[in-house]
Amino acid sequence: MKELVRRQLAQSIETMSAVLADEAIHEAVVEAGQITAHAMKHGRKLLVCGNGGSAADSQHLVAEFVSRLTVDRPALRAIALTTDSSILTAIGNDYSYDNVFERQVEALGLTGDVLLAISTSGNSKNCIKALKLAKKMGIHTISYTGNGGGAMKEHSDINVIIPSRVTMNIQESHIALEHIFCMVVERFYFGPDFGDKPTTISE
Question: Listed GO molecular functions (predicted)?
């Protein structure tokens, strides 16, 4: 069992090392942060969606924006499209599960907003439909994926593609880069020196 632990840690480190060496990923995260900060400064918001573990990531990331990441600061406007069980089940029942994010983008999205869709495969149908509608509405689109980007790649203005086809390793890299994305937004929003003195761990 200890060998299993070592093997899985090594695999995670290998994926993260590939991410560390990929300049295109770094540039995409910075560009995504800059666009999102600009949108927020102009009264717009971040919408985030995903399924399963990526739904959990959506909620986790939005919590960092609305509460805080490492430093006390004003709340930043962000909404997870994965949290309202009545909305999700109504759309899934009345229309299709493929429409659960698209319908919310239609209801909540404004021109100049940002939609971040998270999918390890890059092929989640409900994320693709949300991205397509967002682009029609003048909403900036960002995708965090693996698997070469999948079908979501062509519907996104910015793509953060983890060089892996292993779901859990993609997710591990996603959460690291989602935290960094939040930090980049904070610096573009509040200034380049923001966050140099992080608060201590809170319970």
Answer: carbohydrate derivative binding; D-sedoheptulose 7-phosphate isomerase activity; zinc ion binding
Pairing of strands 46-50, 114-119: parallel
Model pTM above 0.90: yes
* 159 marked as binding residue: no
Quick one: which of 18, 6, 3, 2 has its CA closest to 172? 18
Q: Is 60 annotated as a binding residue?
A: yes
What would the two tokens of residue 169 be? 């390793």
**102 in any annotated domain:** yes
179 annotated ligand-binding residue: yes
124 is in an annotated binding site: yes
What span, in angstroms and rounded, lies between the C-alpha atoms of 96 and 32?
Answer: 30
Instruction: Give the model's pLDDT for residue 200.
Output: 61
164 annotated as belonging to a binding site for a ligand: no
Range of the domain at 154: 2-190
pLDDT at 50 over 80: yes
Please state the domain count of the chain: 1
| Residues 63, 64, 67, 69, Cα dihedral to 10° | 160
At residue 77, what is the residue type? R
